[in-house]
């Protein structure tokens, strides 16, 4: 069981805090000879697998590194176009690492804003007045849990579907936010949270939750 990440969204839908706590490793590195037996294409300025799943490499996985050097979007470490490099027989054999691409800061901002909109739509679609909005989204690989405070701040946790104690964790995060962000004289409401004590106590709370420990008084 694991907790993957934490998001804090202000009442306007802006992302004011994000922490990646644990990322499952899905990277696969293989050495290939020419011609490459995978079909690659450019998607959102990244080179991804379009066809030809094999040995842990899946459709949608991105090229993360070539010959041990990290790839920057569509370009190799020394600035060459990835598709052109892999289309040249002289560059083989070649070692390629595939995996799910890492979300950029802009993508995280966009996703937080999208969830804020979905949350509002969910509240409006409710047949009953005073709906709490979306509290959980479930997939086969993770669950997204959301807790909205009376002031409109949303705390979201992405976790393994088997992870327990998330409701208590969300309220613990709210408590940490109140103690170490709101009481910080240098913090402005609705603005990004940059507080070392907030970071430290949040990480400790995630570790306790992963071990299914209780949040007792003073914890």
From TrEMBL:
Superkingdom classification of source: Eukaryota
GO cellular component, one term: Golgi membrane
Family annotation (SUPFAM superfamilies): SNARE-like (SSF64356)
Function summary: Core component of the TRAPP complexes which has a function of guanine nucleotide exchange factor activity for Rab1 GTPase. Plays a role in vesicular transport from endoplasmic reticulum to Golgi and autophagy. May play a role in dendrite postsynaptic membrane trafficking.
Compartment annotation: Endoplasmic reticulum; Golgi apparatus, cis-Golgi network; Golgi apparatus membrane; Postsynaptic cell membrane
Gene giving rise to this polypeptide: Trappc4
Gene Ontology biological-process entries: endoplasmic reticulum to Golgi vesicle-mediated transport
InterPro entries xrefs: Longin-like_dom_sf, TRAPPC
Naturally occurring in which organism (per UniProt): Hypocryptadius cinnamomeus
A family per Pfam: Sybindin
Protein name: Trafficking protein particle complex subunit
Sorted UniProt keywords: Cell membrane, Endoplasmic reticulum, ER-Golgi transport, Golgi apparatus, Membrane, Postsynaptic cell membrane, Synapse, Transport
Quaternary structure and interacting proteins, as annotated: Part of the multisubunit transport protein particle (TRAPP) complex. Component of the multisubunit TRAPP (transport protein particle) complex, which includes at least TRAPPC2, TRAPPC2L, TRAPPC3, TRAPPC3L, TRAPPC4, TRAPPC5, TRAPPC8, TRAPPC9, TRAPPC10, TRAPPC11 and TRAPPC12. Interacts with SDC2.
SMART domains: Sybindin
Family that this chain belongs to: Belongs to the TRAPP small subunits family. TRAPPC4 subfamily.
């Amino acid at each position: 069981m694991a907790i993957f990440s934490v998001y804090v969204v202000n009442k306007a839908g802006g992302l004011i805090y994000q922490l990646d706590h644990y990322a499952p490793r899905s990277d696969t590195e293989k050495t290939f000879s020419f011609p490459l037996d995978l079909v690659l294409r450019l998607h959102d300025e990244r080179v991804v697998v379009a066809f030809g799943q094999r040995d842990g490499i899946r459709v949608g996985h991105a090229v993360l590194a070539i010959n041990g050097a990290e790839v920057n979007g569509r370009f190799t470490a020394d600035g060459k176009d990835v598709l052109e490099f892999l289309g040249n027989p002289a560059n083989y054999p070649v070692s390629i690492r595939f995996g799910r691409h890492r979300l950029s800061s802009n993508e995280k901002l966009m996703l937080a804003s999208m969830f804020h909109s979905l949350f509002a739509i969910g509240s409006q679609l409710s047949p009953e007045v005073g709906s709490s909005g979306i509290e959980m989204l479930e997939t086969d690989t993770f669950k997204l849990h959301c807790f909205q405070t009376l002031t409109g701040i949303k705390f979201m946790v992405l976790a393994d579907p088997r992870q327990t104690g998330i409701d208590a964790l969300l309220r613990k995060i709210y408590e940490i936010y109140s103690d170490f962000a709101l009481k910080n004289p240098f913090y402005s409401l609705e603005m990004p949270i940059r507080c070392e004590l907030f970071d430290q106590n949040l990480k400790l709370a995630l570790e306790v939750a992963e071990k299914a420990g209780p949040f007792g008084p003073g914890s």
